[in-house]
């Protein structure tokens, strides 16, 4: 018998945090628009085995910057360490872990609903409380756009379920801080 100790490496998308201490955190990362800069940030998220819920990358307010909005589910201490690691990445200008009280968060969903079980007007009426906008209509389906927080998107999807949802495309959340601290 051997006295060698065995170590296990957690699988990707599995946290090292104690069970039940995880919550969803929104990270806003501003990075310079240079070759490989976004890849390096995503690489840190991957290497740290973050339980990534969503990732949105788009040009920022300044033309030479990109804004990355990442939602990760993990314990506060693990996310704090992740933020510290991201801050060390070359070309990263700012990283903020914003709470739901500090963040203005929105998501876009494009929902294609079957018209076989209902007429288009009924589907459109169902979408009105959610501010749904019709972006395409064919004899087979109505395609609507819904914008809001994750709860509003989930409610809209549940409401359209009765007709039959053909397809859904979601952007994932994008966020700004209320105090504009992440300019």
TrEMBL record:
PROSITE patterns: ACT
Protein origin, superkingdom: Bacteria
Ranges of residues in domain ACT: 26-100
Catalytic activities: 2 pyruvate + H(+) = (2S)-2-acetolactate + CO2
Gene Ontology BP terms: isoleucine biosynthetic process; L-valine biosynthetic process
Enzyme class: transferase
Sequence ranges of Polar residues compositional bias: 1-21
Similarity comment text for this entry: Belongs to the acetolactate synthase small subunit family.
Name this protein carries in UniProt: Acetolactate synthase small subunit
Lineage: Bacteria, Bacillati, Chloroflexota, Ktedonobacteria, Ktedonobacterales
Gene (UniProt): ilvH
